[in-house]
Design a protein that fits this description.
It is a single chain. The chain is of the alpha+beta class. The strands form three sheets. Strands 1, 2, 3, 4, 5, 10 and 11 form a seven-stranded antiparallel beta sheet that branches. The chain is globular, with a radius of gyration of 18 Å. It starts with 8 loop residues before the first strand and ends with a helix.
Amino acid sequence: MVKDVPALTMGLEEELFLVDKSSCQLLDEIPPEFLNHCQSEFQQQIVREFLRSQVELISTPCQNLSELRQQLVELRACVINEAEKYKIAPIAASTHPSVTWVHQLPSENDRYRRLADNLQAAALRMVVGGMHLHVGIADENLRLKVYNKVRWYLPLLLALSTSSPYWHKVDSGMASYRLGVIDNLPRSGLPPYFATTSDYTNYINALVDTGIIENTSEFWWHVRMSCRFPTIEFRVMDVCTRIDDAMAIAAFAMALTRN
């Protein structure tokens, strides 16, 4: 694998569903007061996600796993404690076992509305949540080398994280049905190999110039190079119900990156 990897930073994002505690069904809309309080505590670390029933928890860049774990504990605690006031609760799983996608609506957000308009049913079926791990690598060429190498280990990361066996009240027969939903999106699945950073840049520019994408946030590959940060973003994982499981998977991904 890649040698002489410098000190790395890490960050975690996880997408949680919010349900009504009495019915266990997804919310039609997150109470604005709930989100306002969470953001007053953590600013832009707790935000709306694609669906109106979802929030995303976002850590800041961390130097080690202990720091990352502490942030995730605090972010989840904020959501759980505030949700209790409204008789709602978060679900740390990648699909809801009984909800059908046709009853869900995208959030009132320009980007999400545009994606829903462009991708139609492929986007609206995305009643799923994922866990995304960012690993910071400042050097662009090294970042590409790591990206190419870690692609081979994505099935292991998925297998360790699975939390989405049910879809529309049916046992899918798969430990992670979420991946089957995501694979309906364009530019999803296993990512392609790029020999050089120039190859990667030319690929992006061709898609942007022809109007197919606005930027690389519209690559829904299982691992990608972030368009906002100098990071590798592991996106294959389901949301982990237990924080300790999330940290174990983060440690494994970091070890793959450094090896």
